[in-house]
Amino acid sequence: MGWSDICIAPKQSLLYGFVMMLISYAVAYFAYEIGSFIMMIALLAGFMFIGPVLAFGLYSISRQIQEGRKPVLGHCLSEGKRHFGNEMVFAAILLVVFLLWARAASTIHVFFPTEANPHLNDLAIFLGVGSAVGAIFSAVIFCASAFSLPMLLDRKVDVVTAVVTSINTTLRNRGIMLLWGLIIVTCIFVGFFTATLFVMLPLIGHATWHAYQETINAEAWPKHVSDE
Questions:
Q1: Where are the chain's structural domains?
Q2: Residue of 8, 17, 32 lying closest to 199 (CA atoms)
Q3: What's the predicted TM-score (pTM) here?
Q4: Which residues contact residue 70 at a Cβ distance below 8 angstroms, ignoring those fewer than 6 apart?
Q5: What is the secondary structure of 117-142 as a DSSP string?
Q6: What average pLDDT values come out for the chain (228 residues) when binned by 10 residues?
């Protein structure tokens, strides 16, 4: 259903995706200019962490389509402004987790071999520990952000309620959510290296909105009324 939203609102979706793509490439270029591949990976990982916040406008486009309205980017901005407080609280949570991840990543360098030209076997512990730590932080972020922002847009709830609901739903559907997470990572990496992020990001954003609608029964909380 994510693709159907792009077909209904191609200009709005692709323009939003193009802006997000430019941001990601600007981050990569900045890291390249300072000459650090590790920094580029770290910054791109950070971009993936805050991606759900940036995708808020895509959720708004999907919501407008669902309500039978013509999607307007100005309406996305007004909804973003209305939910700005919750968005910033959520972004702050992601930032704290990202900083902890960056600190853990720097600490892991104690496992890096001291040899000038280490073999793959010498890197096994370093790569294994690094992958495990990265997987833990990624899982935390994914569980917290899978459905929380669509819920904040749709219902009158606080950030804690939205995050707890997202984590609970993700853990109850571990298998399918693991598959969904792998699809997201694959789409982002393919999009980044093939310059198709402007399509991949809207596709993921719209699909996330519909996944939220199909997965979570949020009738217990009052619904936000969209501004006409």
A1: 2-215
A2: 17
A3: 0.82
A4: 64
A5: S--TTTTHHHHHHHHHHHHHHHHHHH
A6: 90 91 79 63 60 82 91 83 84 81 78 70 78 86 91 92 95 93 89 89 93 91 74
